[in-house]
Amino acid sequence: MTFLPQFRACIEAGAWSVMCSYNSINGVPACANKELLTDILRNEWGFKGYVVSDQGAIENIMSAHHYTNSTVATAEVAVNAGTCLEDANEEDNVFASIGQAVSEGLITDATVIDAVSRLFLVRMRLGEFDPPEMNPYTKLKVEDYVQSEAHRQLSLEAAMASAVLMKNDMTMGMTLPITTPVNSACVVGPFINDPSLYFGDYSPTLMPEYIVTVQDGLQDAMISKALSYAEGCTDGPKCNSYDSSVVKACSDVELAIVTLGTGKVLESEGNDRADINLPGQQLKLLQDAANSAKGPVVLVLYNAGPLDVSWAKSSDLSWL
């Protein structure tokens, strides 16, 4: 009810490869789970493609889940479950033991042939064995697609659509968007001028020519006749080290713009948070900015998981 419908939709849409994950389902590691990879994926959904492991997931069956106690036994349960290809951490990978597992009668020749056939079927569909002139992929030019104008515009539209406006307080006579420049404003927080913080885990190589930071964007937008800046946190979003530059930057300004959040420094694969509090001294930064400014505050959050912003919600100060 929760997870399978999305994957089934991908299969029905024409996906030819599926990755089995690190976790267990009902006590069985995903890459050794016959119910998941064969009974449901292949038999119920009619999947004709191949299954590849997440990196190290086959090794984890033995080393992390302790579901097996040898590479031969691990190869047995993975291949028989329906995993066709191992993405390994170690050069001496688990699937190198498939031959021994076949010799010992733990995996049949037919099972190996089925796995290999699925791999080569996809390679053939990709045209890897065709003459280059017959393969349409050889005619693609990277510059026509990677960071193309159309794709950059789509990325901009997606970013705009993903922003969520949580509050727009009208009590101070100012609402978002800000269309009339104010006399003074401050822009503060660890996200104002570090492009690397705007991208999620596994994002592509950053291309500075296509990135506009908060600081640069607000300068170009000319929202204020006088803009002052301060990051406040000297160690980025972790904000364990905080200085008083925010108080100085926001003193008596008509508008304060505060950027807080996590970024992939604190939220990424294998890098989880223990709570939903604003990291480090970020709440202190927010309070300093709000108490120093004489006008409303715009709080901009950069985060994937939830954050506790109850102080901003319950404060008597004016918020946009």
Automatic annotation (TrEMBL):
Amino-acid biosynthesis among keywords: no
Domain Glycoside hydrolase family 3 C-terminal per the UniProt entry, residue ranges: 164-313
Highest taxon, organism lineage: Eukaryota
Pfam families with a match to the protein in the record: Glyco_hydro_3, Glyco_hydro_3_C
Alphabetized SUPFAM superfamilies for the sequence: (Trans)glycosidases, Beta-D-glucan exohydrolase, C-terminal domain
Keyword entries, A-Z: Glycosidase, Hydrolase, Signal
GO BP, sorted A to Z: arabinan catabolic process; xylan catabolic process
InterPro entries reported in the protein's UniProt record: BXL (IPR044993), GH (IPR017853), Glyco_hydro_3_C (IPR002772), Glyco_hydro_3_C_sf (IPR036881), Glyco_hydro_3_N (IPR001764), Glyco_hydro_3_N_sf (IPR036962)
Record domain Glycoside hydrolase family 3 N-terminal: where: 3-119
GO molecular function: alpha-L-arabinofuranosidase activity; xylan 1,4-beta-xylosidase activity
Protein name per the record: Beta-xylosidase/alpha-L-arabinofuranosidase 1
Organism name: Geodia barretti (Barrett's horny sponge)
Lineage: Eukaryota, Metazoa, Porifera, Demospongiae, Heteroscleromorpha
